[in-house]
Every structure is written in structure tokens, then in C-alpha cells.
Design goal:
Protein name: TIM barrel protein
Shape: globular
CATH architecture: Alpha-Beta Barrel
Strand content: 15-25%
Oligomer: single chain
Order of helices and strands: EHEHEEHEEHEEHEHEHHEHEH
Number of domains: 1
CATH topology: TIM Barrel
Number of helices: 10
CATH class: Alpha Beta
Number of strands: 12
Structural class: alpha/beta
Distance between the termini: 18 Å
Radius of gyration: 18 Å
InterPro entries: Xyl_isomerase-like_sf
CATH superfamily: Divalent-metal-dependent TIM barrel enzymes
Largest sheet: 8 strands, parallel, barrel
Strand order of the largest sheet: 1-2-3-5-9-10-11-12
Length: 290
């Protein structure tokens, strides 16, 4: 049976968590990659029996894991396995990972520093918009991207075995379209699934990418779910259109016209449904349960 819940990334106070727990007894939570040691110390006693997943890394570190670089793999594996221990302790089954970046080495958690790292890749020719490194369709055809993708797959398969041996699911998330980010197309996630890797499908990211790469978001969401490898999903919406590609993480029903169909189809396939909106947490939870 799939679990329904919400990421703690958009919840700012303990009172809101308690109200959601009381109003929706079947609601689960996802630990956020923005959590701090002090916030987790406060939150875990409240949610530890109802945590479905951990968005790596929690608590937050200075860097993100990066499986697309051999030089960052040792650090990434160690940090992820530490989170795996936490997942076992609190009963979370899924570890959600942004699987790879074109940066050769570790990727900064700080947004502005990370954006500078992406701009320093010297791949302006593959950008639709330079200000936020928005990727053009040609980006995924570049030799640098193809080479990093192969490294990412090799490292993901190695790490996946270790996570599976612990009784957990490593779920690889599809990312939003920035030069330097990886796993952008539905067919890439389907390929990862064909290798036995598990997925976290972020439908908000998929929606933005559908505008740039020219595919139908709803039908591709269903195809991904049909792989049987989607263990969990991130649900939010973005006001994106041609020329505007913001990953805003707004309420799921705000800019996602087929949100009800996604909830229904994903539930029938057994995937967990985790809201990742940064506004209206209680109303968004109601979308899943009412």
C-alpha cells in the first residue's frame, strides 16, 4: 500500500506538524535536505514513527552527494550510508537522491555558490537562459553530459547494492532543467529503471522539462509509473511556460491541471505520494486525503 504525506521542507513550525498528525492520522513525512541537527532533534520525536523517506542529506551538510564524478563518490557514499542508518532507526524505507551533477567533485549546498559552479562549467552554448543556467534541449546531447551520465550510472549501481542490502530503497530523482544538473528526461529515468534502479519522480520538475524538451507531462508520468520502479513521488507545481522556467514548488493543484489524475494513477501503482510544496501545507495534505 502506498503512503501519502508531505516533505518537511515547507513546514516552518512544530504546531503545523502536530495539526497535520492529528487531522490526518495516515499522513507520513519526508525529512528535508534543509533540516539542521537542532531542527531534527526537535522534529524526530514527533514524526519518527511516520517518516516515509529521507531527502538526502538530512541533516544538511555543506555539499550534496554527486554520483556523476568519481572524485566525489567516496564522500557521497559515506554520507548517504550515514543517512541509511538514520532511516533504519526511524523506519523510513526510501532514500531520495539527486543523483548527479556535471561538476567534477562535490556540489555546494548553498544555492548561489552552486550556481557559480554551474556557470563555471563553460557550457553557455547549451543554455536557454544564462542567469539561472537554464538548459537548452542540446544540453543532454553534449559529450560532457553523456560522459558524466555513464559515471553516474556506474556509481548508482554500486551504491544501490549497498542500500538494498540494508533493506532500504535508493530512489533517484529527476531534476529540473539546469546546465550542470542530470537525469532530466523521462527516458533517462526509464533507462535507470531498466537497470534495476528505483526512482523518485518529481512531477513539478517533469512539468518544467516538458516545456523545454517537448513531451507530454501526464503521459510520461504514467509511463514512468508503469516501470514499477517508482517508489515515491514529489508533488508540487510550477508557473512555468515558454520563456519562464522557475522551479517554484507551489501548491500541487495551483499549476498542475491533472493533479487528481496523477494522485489516482500513482496510488494504483503503489507509489508513495509526498507533497513537496513550500506553501499551504495543511491544504495540500487535504488534496491527498479528502
Amino acid at each position: 500500500m502506498n503512503k501519502k504525506g508531505i516533505s518537511l521542507v515547507g513546514i516552518k513550525d512544530i504546531d503545523t506538524i502536530n495539526r497535520i498528525r492529528e487531522s490526518y492520522p495516515d499522513c507520513y513525512f519526508e525529512l528535508s535536505y534543509l533540516s539542521t541537527p537542532s531542527s531534527l532533534k526537535e522534529i524526530l520525536p514527533i514524526v519518527k514513527d511516520r517518516v516515509a523517506s529521507i531527502h538526502l542529506l538530512a541533516p544538511v551538510k555543506d555539499y550534496f552527494p554527486n554520483l556523476a564524478s568519481f572524485s566525489s563518490y567516496e564522500w557521497s557514499e559515506k554520507a548517504i550510508l550515514e543517512n541509511a542508518e538514520l532511516a533504519i532507526e526511524i523506519g523510513a524505507e526510501n532514500l531520495v537522491l539527486h543523483p548527479g551533477y556535471l561538476v567534477d567533485g562535490l556540489v555546494s549546498r548553498d544555492y548561489q555558490t552552486r550556481l557559480t559552479q554551474l556557470k563555471n562549467l563553460n557550457m553557455e552554448e547549451y543554455m536557454l537562459q544564462k542567469e539561472e543556467s537554464v538548459a537548452a534541449p542540446s544540453y543532454i546531447k553534449s559529450e560532457k553530459y553523456k560522459k558524466a551520465f555513464k559515471i553516474m550510472v556506474e556509481n548508482a549501481l554500486k551504491l544501490n547494492k549497498k542500500i538494498n542490502n540494508l533493506g532500504l530503497n535508493l530512489t533517484l530523482e529527476n531534476l529540473n532543467p539546469r546546465v550542470g544538473y542530470m537525469n532530466l528526461l523521462p527516458e533517462e529515468s526509464i533507462y535507470l529503471a531498466s537497470l534495476g534502479l528505483n526512482l523518485c519522480i518529481d512531477v513539478g520538475h517533469l512539468f518544467i522539462n516538458s516545456i523545454i524538451f517537448g513531451f507530454d507531462c501526464l503521459s510520461q508520468t504514467k509511463l514512468l509509473l508503469d516501470t514499477g520502479r517508482v517508489k515515491t513521488m514529489h508533488l508540487h507545481s510550477n508557473p512555468s511556460h515558454v520563456g519562464y522556467y522557475k522551479d517554484s514548488h507551489l501548491s500541487f493543484d495551483k499549476y498542475m491541471p491533472y493533479y487528481k489524475e496523477i494522485i489516482s494513477y500513482a496510488s494504483s501503482k503503489g507509489a508513495n505520494l509526498i507533497l513537496e510544496s513550500i506553501e499551504e501545507p495543511e491544504r495540500n495534505v487535504g488534496l491527498l486525503f479528502n
